[in-house]
Design a protein that fits this description.
alpha/beta
């Protein structure tokens, strides 16, 4: 594998350094629809557009770095999930991927429910008008204040994560004169093919109650005995960024087995199971995610088959897509600063953001794509590493990518598929100001989460 020489960069090499990249694409100007949201295109000038607006105009108005969210795409994905599962199932958007009051309103309008996992997410949901009964509350260590607020608001379900929480929620519900619907989160012993830090169904981790050893069965016994709780089902989540449905098949089989054991021991058929989320999206052209209708068909068939074999009525299914909805709908726009060629290796391209707006590359070794978007170029490809401006050698946005060899300071580059977890996990490292989130739709752009200011930083610093 080789590449053309770049006058300011590494000389021609017969072998490129080891990395995460494949061969350079045939045309660096192509914006692969697999990784970009559906209204992204290039205009007659070669400038990338979203919702009919050029990124140069967006950068001029909103600055960089900034997240631009394709509202048309977001709403279409919500509808696709709702239609795929129909009225006999529930789709809960996983708010941890990205949540704002505008997003809550979109979810409400498109008929999706909402999954929250903190008091902050809950107050955001309620303040934007999401009906409490359409909210599920997750978390491995919910505080008493958070539980009290959730029960008092009337959330549709609380997902119980420990023996202590079973007692805690029951006590608070009883003190409020309520009977709180709950599910029990179980760990099913499935090793999802994903990064260790986002795999959640093996036993050696913090979430849930294990099927192995009888913890989950004991949790059911305790929940059924408490007047403050209405046990409505079992919850399982096996991980994130998963493409292989085999893990879901094993998980569903084990959850249904637990439902059968509950029936046999208690004479109760629990009416619901939640199979979680975690379905992968395309971050690069090599990724091949499934469509919502394929996922719905596969999960429904798995659950129906296992329930029939166990002699159970088929329970109502819930799923929790977060990344699969919002991930592909947004990109992060950066302006190029320093360009630093390393002879025989690669060219380092520094942008005006970094790990403060996308920690996933450093944290999970995540892979992303990147394109020059302020113009097209016929220059030869050069191997680059897109890095941020923070004082960390691990401050990497895109580890290995090909960009045109005439890339220059001031150019705009964009990283697609950054809708999930990038703004949610953003930080003020080095006192960076967190970027805005700008929704774009039908030729109009509006800020839905504003850019932080220096005044915001100083307001929190009480001296």
């Amino acid at each position: 594998m080789s590449r053309s020489a770049h006058p300011a960069g590494p000389r021609h090499a017969d072998v490129l350094p080891e990395g995460h990249y494949s061969a350079p694409p045939a045309d660096l100007n192509v914006l692969d629809p697999k990784v970009w949201s559906r209204t992204v295109a290039r205009d007659e000038r070669g400038v990338a557009t979203v919702g009919g607006i050029g990124v140069d105009a967006l950068a001029e108005e909103f600055g960089t770095p900034a997240y631009f969210l394709d509202e048309t795409d977001f709403r279409a994905r919500c509808r696709a999930w709702a239609e795929a599962f129909g009225t006999d199932a529930d789709v809960f958007y996983a708010g941890k991927a990205f949540l704002s009051r505008a997003v809550v309103r979109w979810l409400k309008e498109e008929g999706l429910n909402l999954d929250v996992c903190s008091g902050g997410e809950l107050v955001t949901a309620l303040s934007a008008g999401m009906p409490a009964e359409r909210i599920a509350f997750h978390g491995n260590n919910k505080s008493e204040d958070e539980i009290h607020r959730a029960v008092e608001a009337g959330v549709g379900r609380i997902v119980l994560d420990s023996f202590q929480e079973i007692a805690r929620v029951a006590h608070i519900a009883q003190s409020l004169g309520k009977r709180q619907p709950v599910q029990i989160r179980v760990t099913v012993g499935v090793e999802a093919h994903t990064h260790e830090f986002i795999a959640t169904a093996h036993e050696d981790q913090k979430f849930g109650l294990a099927l192995a050893g009888g913890q989950a069965a004991e949790a059911v016994r305790r929940a059924l005995k408490l007047d403050g709780l209405e046990l409505i089902g079992i919850h399982s989540h096996i991980g994130s960024q998963i493409f292989d449905m085999a893990g879901f098949e094993v998980s569903a089989r084990r959850v249904v087995q637990l439902l059968a054991e509950v029936r046999d021991e208690h004479g109760v058929e629990l009416p619901e199971i939640d199979l979680g989320g975690g379905l992968g999206i395309a971050y690069t052209s090599e990724d091949d995610p499934r469509e919502p209708h394929e996922i719905a068909k596969a999960l429904n068939e798995i659950v129906s088959r296992e329930c029939e074999a166990a002699g159970l009525r088929t329970p109502r299914i819930s799923v929790e897509p977060g990344r699969a909805i919002v991930g592909p709908t947004a990109f992060t726009l950066y302006r190029v600063g320093t360009i630093k060629p390393l002879e025989g290796l690669r060219t380092y391209v520094s942008v005006d953001g970094g790990m403060s707006d996308n920690i996933r590359t450093a944290l999970y070794d995540a892979e992303y794509s990147v394109n020059l978007v302020s113009r097209t170029s016929e220059a030869a490809p050069m191997l680059t590493r897109v890095v941020g401006k923070h004082c960390e050698s691990g401050d990497i946005v895109v580890r290995d990518a090909f960009l045109p060899s005439d890339l220059a300071p001031g150019d705009l580059v964009a990283v697609p598929a950054t809708g999930a977890y990038c703004r949610s996990m953003a930080s003020n490292y080095n006192h960076a100001l967190r970027p805005p989130v700008v929704a774009v739709r039908d030729g109009e752009a509006r800020v839905i989460v504003r850019r932080e200011t220096e005044e915001d930083l100083l307001r929190l610093d009480v001296g």
